[in-house]
Amino acid sequence: NAGVTQTPKFRILKIGQSMTLQCTQDMNHNYMYWYRQDPGMGLKLIYYSVGAGITDKGEVPNGYNVSRSTTEDFPLRLELAAPSQTSVYFCASSPRTGVIQETQYFGPGTRLLVL
Amino acid sequence: GQQLNQSPQSMFIQEGEDVSMNCTSSSIFNTWLWYKQDPGEGPVLLIALYKAGELTSNGRLTAQFGITRKDSFLNISASIPSDVGIYFCAGPVSGGFKTIFGAGTRLFVKA
In whole angstroms, how far apart are CA A27 and each of A8, A13, A33, B25, B86? Predict the structure, then answer.
């Protein structure tokens, strides 16, 4: 099992550019999440999904879009990059079953710099 | 909305020392989670707590679910350099569909 994989690892964007952050999990988890982590801060939830075809907003969804066409993939789209979106982005998944239902498994992160 | 407050924000300690950190909320939580984030990595779950007053250990780590259900504590005994990282408390909200995280306690260990 690769777990949760994210690409790219690092990206520099110019203001106004768009990009898609990829996230894939091979654990057959229904629940998936996108967080952003600003320097010295905790994790803020951007969007989450409870299954293929179902997505919902988190705390800080403005400027982002998501889709969930398969159980495995949960891409995050930035349409018009702004400096305020400079952050580290983490994707996570959760089985919501088992001994510790709330466990989230995180990817290694994508570091995004918007200039 | 619900918020988790962690203290201290950061700690600088000597190898071998014990460490204590806590997490508080104005709301009641039914589950408390503690995650660790190594530098350059994503967070990993350390301990989950489900019952008020519960004390759970994972190696040198011990966490407690406060009896008011509004706080939780994490202790690390005999710290070592690999304990360096950010420790987050977290709790499920909105029927468990979402989890909120504290801002983290940054631990630095000097060998």
Answer: 20, 31, 14, 32, 26
